[in-house]
Design goal:
The protein is α+β, with helices and mostly antiparallel strands and 228 residues long. It folds into two domains: 88 residues, Beta-grasp domain (Ubiquitin-like (UB roll), Roll); 119 residues, Orthogonal Bundle (Fumarate Reductase Iron-sulfur Protein, Chain B, domain 2). It is 32% helix and 14% strand. The longest helix is centred in the C-terminal third of the chain and has 14 residues.
Length: 228
């Protein structure tokens, strides 16, 4: 089996004796037996922490759970500063949780039904692997975009019955937020937890509309009637 790893924009090829193994095991084997300088992130090795997220053949995966195939191309996450090899700096992306003010703004007592719990339970399972952030095409043109996982987290709290000031959360998402998303669904496709940021952003847009907001890009859209 051969693996190709993008290291500092240079593709290096490593041969492995395995017929079948996870990508993380393969990376550890390369580091132990061929190149001890190979750098990557890992922690729990069981799909819980999200630290080992990388791209394989252009798609974001968790290395600990991905079964590699010969000639796979392994690359670091998109839209992140590469520290070395497959290790990236995730801190700027995680700071978007602060930008989105993804927490309860005005906590209040509330009786929460099982149905209400189910509305936001999956969003609470986010492991901050940054796969959705890496896959987002908006970030390629707008690095200030809040990003999928921060918007999903904002939805989780905006829909919480204990939130007494939902409009405050929605107000923080107007600039570089919910209206900048193209709703392409790439974030949903790569989430290892089955979270659907596209739907969460759609629901946030609906709430924003009810509060009197509108898409600021609407006035500049061309619907094909420019000649009339």
């Amino acid at each position: 089996m051969q693996l190709h790893i993008n290291r500092h924009s240079t593709i290096e090829t490593f041969s492995l004796p395995f017929q079948s193994t996870t990508l993380l095991q393969a990376l550890y084997a390369i580091k132990a037996n061929q190149d001890p300088s190979l750098t990557f992130d890992s922690n729990c090795r069981s799909g819980i922490c999200g630290a080992c997220a990388v791209r394989v053949n252009g798609k974001e995966v968790l290395a600990c759970g991905h079964e590699v195939q010969s000639d796979d191309l392994i690359e670091p996450l998109n839209h992140h500063e590469v520290v070395r090899d497959l290790k990236v700096n995730r801190h700027p992306a995680h700071q978007q949780l602060t930008t989105a003010t993804a927490w309860l703004h005005a906590p209040r007592e509330a009786i929460i039904t099982p149905q209400e719990v189910s509305l936001t339970q999956q969003q609470s399972d986010c492991i901050l692997c940054n796969s959705c952030y890496s896959s987002c095409p908006v970030l390629a043109v707008n690095p200030n975009f809040i990003g999928p996982f921060a918007l999903s987290r904002a939805y989780r709290y905006s829909a919480d019955p204990r939130e007494g000031n939902q409009p405050e959360i929605i107000a923080q998402l107007q600039s570089n937020g919910i209206w900048d998303c193209t709703l392409c669904g790439e974030c949903t496709a790569v989430c290892p937890q089955g979270i659907d940021p596209k739907m969460d952003i759609t629901l946030l847009r609906s709430t924003a509309t009810q509060l009197g907001y509108s898409d600021p890009n609407f006035q500049t859209m061309d619907f094909g009637f420019g000649g009339f």
